[in-house]
Amino acid sequence: MKIKITVMKQTIYEDLMEMYENKIEHACLEKIGNVYYTDGIKKPDGMCDSAWETIMPFAKDLINGKDNFYDGWMRNKKSAMLSCNDGFRPVSFYIEVVE
To answer: For 9-31, what is each residue's pLDDT tens digit?
Structure first.
């Protein structure tokens, strides 16, 4: 059993970036459609550290048999839709248990 992580969507708030962000190169390298696999413990190679910090607790719970987060939040009880904590360019990740 593994956890599959798929990059689903990215939103970019250019107005907030212009007002508050110091320009940085390579702030986010995630691309829609990227797929990663994990055992729930180890961060997948190439995945953003910040995104993994958000995803890891859910991945760990799923790999250990927990499901149905927040009493029916997801149609697939062995999944979650999560976003990284970048307030300027949040990325949405769909994580699911795969056999």
So the answer is: 999 999 999 999 998 877 788 99
pTM for the whole structure:
0.92
| Residues 38 and 61: beta-carbon distance below 8 Å | no
- Single-letter amino acid code for the residue at 33: G
Residue 5: predicted pLDDT: 98
User: Encoding tokens for residue 40?
Assistant: 């729930």
Contact status, residue 5 vs residue 36, Cβ threshold 8 Å: yes
Which structural domain range is residue 52 located in? Answer: 2-98
Q: How many CB atoms lie within 10 A of CB 18?
A: 10
Residue 90: both structure tokens together: 């949040």
